[in-house]
Amino acid sequence: MTPDLLKKGAERIAEHAKLVVESTESGGRSAGYGRVVQDADQVDVTHGRILYLEDVSVSFDGFKAINKLSLDIAPGELRCIIGPNGAGKTTMMDIITGKTRPDEGRVFFGSTIDLLRHNEPQIAQLGIGRKFQKPTVFEQLTVFENLELALKTNKGVKASMFFKLDSVQSDRLAEVLHTIHLSDSVSKPAGLLSHGQKQWLEIGMLLIQDPKLLLLDEPVAGMTDHETERTAELFLTLKGKHSLMVVEHDMSFIRTISDIVTVLCDGSVLAQGTLDQVQADERVIEVYLGR
Ligand SMILES: Nc1ncnc2c1ncn2[C@@H]1O[C@H](COP(=O)(O)OP(=O)(O)O)[C@@H](O)[C@H]1O
Ligand SMILES: [Mg+2]
Question: Is 83 in the pocket of ligand 1 (CB under 6 A)?
Fold first, then answer.
C-alpha cells in the first residue's frame, strides 16, 4: 500500500470515526510501510483498520469471481457479509487467508502487513483464523484433547514435542471451554457432539490461538434454532476482543449480531450499511429476488 493510499484511507476513517489520526501514538510510523512483519503482536491498526482490501480481482478460466473488490474492517468490528450464491464470499476469504492469489489488488493486515507476501500457514501464524463451513474437529479425540491439540499446533512442531500445559494455558483452555458452552463436555469424544457443538468446538480451537481476525463462513448452517441463538450470543461476546468477518444467509441471525452489513454480488460490494438499510436497497432486492 502506498503512503498516499494509506493517507486517503486514514482520512476517510478519521472522518468516519471522528478520530484525529495525527494524535495517535505511532501516527508517524511511515518507516514501516510495506515491511514484512512476522509477529502478530505488531499488527499496526493506528490507521483504524485491521483488514484492508483494495481493487482485488481474481479470474477462474476467464470468469471474474472477484471483481475490483474494496472493503475494510475496523479492529474489534463484527462485519457481516451477505450475498447470493456465487457472489464471491468464500473466494474473498480464500484470498485473505492466502489460499487463492488474486490477479491484482492489495490485501493488508493492519496498515503494514502485506498479506500477498505471505503464504497460508504464515497468515494463520500472523493471527488470522478461519472457520470453514463444515466442522473439521477430530472425532475420536475428546473436546479437551481437540483444544489441547489446537494449542500445541499454535506452538509449532518443535515446541509441541515437549509440550505441557502451563497454568496460563490451562486457564485459557478453561475460559475457551466456557465461552463455547462446552465446559460440561470436556471428556466427551468430539464425534458424539451435536452438529452445533462441533461447530463451537472448532471455533474454540481457533480462539485458543487468540486470533486477531476471525473469518467464519456460514457458521450457523445446519444448526437448530437454539444453537443458532447461542452462537449469536457467542459472537457478541467475541466482538471487541477479536475482529470478525461472518458470512451468513440466516437473516435473523445477521439481525441479532450485525452492525454493518456488506452485500457482495458478482465479486464486488453492491451495498453496505445496517441490515435495514441494505434490505431496503433496490439493487439488493433485485439481486435477491430478481434471479
Ligand atoms: N477454484 C475455483 N475454480 C473455478 N471457479 C471457482 C473457484 N472458486 C470459486 N469459483 C467460482 O467463483 C464464483 C464465486 O464462488 P464463491 O466464492 O464460492 O461464492 P459464494 O461463497 O459467494 O457462494 C462462483 O461462480 C464459483 O463457481
Ligand atoms: Mg460460499
Answer: yes
Query: According to the model, what pLDDT value does residue 48 have?
Result: 87
**How far away, in angstroms, is 130 Cα from ligand 1 center?**
17
Q: 53 and 114 in contact (C-beta within 8 Å)?
A: no
Contacts of 91 (CB under 8 A, 6+ apart): 58, 65, 66, 100, 267
CA of 85 to the centre of ligand 2 (A): 7
Q: Which residues contact 63 (CB under 8 A, 6 or more apart)?
A: none
Listed in sequence order, the residues at least 6 apart from 80 whose beta carbon sits closer than 8 Å to its beta carbon are 246, 247, 248, 254, 257, 258, 260, 261, 262, 275
| Closest C-alpha to ligand 1, atom 5 | 60
Q: Is 88 left (phi over 0), alpha (psi -120 to 50) or beta?
A: left
Topology adopted by domain 3-289: Rossmann fold (3.40.50)
DSSP string, 225-287: HHHHHHHHHHHHHHBTTBEEEEE---HHHHHHH-SSEEEEETTEEEEEE-HHHHHT-HHHHHH
pLDDT at 20 over 90: no
Local confidence band at 163 (pLDDT 50, 70, 90 cut-offs): low
Return the domain boundaries, the chain.
Answer: 3-289
How far is residue 27's CA from residue 46's CA, in Å, rounded to a whole number? 7
Give percent of the chain above pLDDT 70.
81
Q: For ligand 1, is residue 90 a contact (CB within 6 Å)?
A: yes
Query: What's the whole-number mean pLDDT along residues 230-243?
Result: 95
Instruction: Using the atom order of ligand 1, give the atom closest to the CA of residue 92.
Output: 17
Cβ atoms of 273 and 258 closer than 8 Å = no
Q: For residues 125 and 56, give the distance between their C-alpha atoms in angstroms, rounded to a whole number.
A: 23
* Ligand 2 geometric centre to CA of 65 (Å): 12
